[in-house]
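[SOLVED] Predicted holo structure with coenzyme A

Edit: marking solved, answer below. Original request kept for reference. I posted the sequence and ligand SMILES and asked for the 3D complex as structure tokens.
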Amino acid sequence: MEVIVDQLDIDDLVECSDLYVSTFIAEPWNETWNKDDAFDRLNDFLSSPNSVALKAVCNNEILGFLIGENQAWNGEKFHYLKEICVHNSKHRQGIGKNLMNSLEAMMNDHGVSRIYLITQRDSVPSEFYSRLGYTENTNIMVMGKAVGESS
Ligand SMILES: CC(C)(COP(=O)(O)OP(=O)(O)OC[C@H]1O[C@@H](n2cnc3c(N)ncnc32)[C@H](O)[C@@H]1OP(=O)(O)O)[C@@H](O)C(=O)NCCC(=O)NCCS
């Protein structure tokens, strides 16, 4: 299986939305995405002026992708990785690693000194990122608050 990593653009978003929905409605996430919401989310991310997006393609089929954004940070530039997913039937074949390696290789040219991301503790992605050398910043916590009528 020859997998090629290439730049993802707007014409890929419908296919990526389908892939995104099928990935995140499955275990372990069991989320309830519909394709329109997935498209809107990915389109917003891709439309960011400093977005970086890559797809892994085999035989004209997108098997995985990632989308993130370069951000100025305190005299440096960081990359915030917002989404990565690989087709459920193609896990553990090195596609996610291939995408991440390609992203990391690009970052020098972008003047980026660090990639950061948010993920769930003790999960498949946390294992995946750890394996690739990513470590937890224990000084940081993610906070949230319900707002609006449901709160
Ligand atoms: C996380 C994800 C992108 C990994 O992609 P992948 O193509 O399956 O990962 P790779 O095959 O490149 O794995 C690289 C290494 O990560 C680790 N890893 C990946 N999946 C793992 C799993 N299920 N359990 C333990 N370790 C795992 C392994 O060390 C693996 O190397 P090995 O197979 O030689 O042992 C994929 O599981 C996915 O799309 N999950 C659903 C979407 C998601 O959770 N996205 C992240 C949200 S923050």
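OP edit: The radius of gyration is 16 Å. Thanks to everyone who chimed in.
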